[in-house]
Every structure is written in structure tokens, then in C-alpha cells.
Design goal:
The protein has about 70 residues and is mainly alpha-helical. It has 4 helices and 2 strands, in the order H-E-H-H-E-H. It has helices at about 1-25, 35-40, 45-55, 65, and strands spanning about 35, 60. Strands 1-2 form a two-stranded antiparallel ribbon. The radius of gyration is 14 Å and the shape is globular. The relative contact order is 0.15.
Length: about 70
Amino acid sequence: MKKTILFSALILATSGAMAQEDKLAMLDADVDGRISVEEAASDPALSAVFAELDVNKDGYLTPSELAEH
């Protein structure tokens, strides 16, 4: 039973990380490894929280900033 719970938790954590990588790949039009305000505009949900997620206020979302979301 404990192995099943641990395995399920691992799968959920991995799928969440993969979802963030997929979002980055889909929105990163210039393939620079980050999402600009302009690139985020194509995703209304992300655009709505862009400023909140942009922790260092540089105008880009990095993989680490997306992971915290």
C-alpha cells in the first residue's frame, strides 16, 4: 500500500513538471528558454498572472518561475 501511494505521488509530481515544460515549449516562440509578456499573451490564464509569477520582475517567466505556479 505504501509503495502504491509513493508511486502515485511520483507520477503526479512528474506529470506536473512535464506539463510546465510543455507549456514553456508551446509558448516560447523564440526558443530562448523563457516566456515573454508578448508570448504569454496567447494564453489568457497565464497572461492574467504573469506579473505575479515574474518574481524577479524582468519581463520573462523562466522554468523555475513557472514551476512555482
